[in-house]
């Protein structure tokens, strides 16, 4: 009993020490490695393990649908605002081959990081870093895929895709596949001039390289 009490006390003290540790700074860097897709504003969230922006095989939330179809992260930010350790948005479009960075803070003992941005021109495809632990030291690098929100059919029609290439509609209430899954790129869908083909806009996963670097001890 005495040994068990000592062990319990030790665990309590170590847990309390971890919770009392100050947040540390991380540099998050994202590089677009697609040949023809552009990323919208890139949302970065530092959060506890109980939070995730999406679940593969499950229906997308409305905030995720809005981000994946129109590139607007505001509803996702509102969704996580009460529980996130830090939230930031890297503003502006990130073209193929370009790199962007930001600084966020979090607790390495209990923090996770996620990132999301829409791919344009697509119907409802987004790049994401999906709930990974903050590195305790050094740098962690991730090659991440494109995900399909499953909220809009991939007709590749400019009328249904926003952004500078198409200028079409963003978020809509049209049906899709119904669940979040790995994006499968662009395909040949006929000769309609409003339908984009794979020659320029296709990709093969991964679509981004993301590094998370602890900047201080």
- Which band does the percent of strand residues land in? 25-35%
Question: What is the H-and-E element order?
Answer: HEEEHHEEEEEEEHE
- Which percent bin holds the helix content? 10-25%
- Report the biggest beta sheet as strand number plus sense, adding barrel if it closes: 7 strands, antiparallel
Shape: globular
Q: Which spans have pLDDT < 50 for at least 5 consecutive residues? A: 2-19
State the fourth-level CATH superfamily. Answer: F-spondin domain
Total domain modules: 1
Spatial extent as radius of gyration: 20 Å
Distance between the termini: 38 Å
Q: Number of helical runs?
A: 4
CATH hierarchy: architecture: Sandwich
What does this structure look like?
The protein has about 220 residues and is α+β, with helices and mostly antiparallel strands. It has one domain: F-spondin domain (Immunoglobulin-like, Sandwich). Helices cover about 20% and strands about 30% of the residues. The chain is built from four helices and eleven strands. The chain has helices spanning about 1-20, 60-70, 75-80, 200, and strands at about 25-30, 40, 40-45, 85-90, 100-105, 110-120, 125-135, 140-145, 145-150, 180, 210-215. The strands form two sheets. Strands 2, 3, 4, 6, 7, 9 and 10 form a seven-stranded antiparallel beta sheet that branches. It has a four-stranded antiparallel beta sheet with strand order 5-1-11-8, with no helix packed on it. Strand 6 (about 110-120) and strand 7 form a beta hairpin. Helix 2 (about 60-70) runs antiparallel to helix 3 (about 75-80). The chain is globular, with a radius of gyration of 20 Å. The two termini are about 40 Å apart.
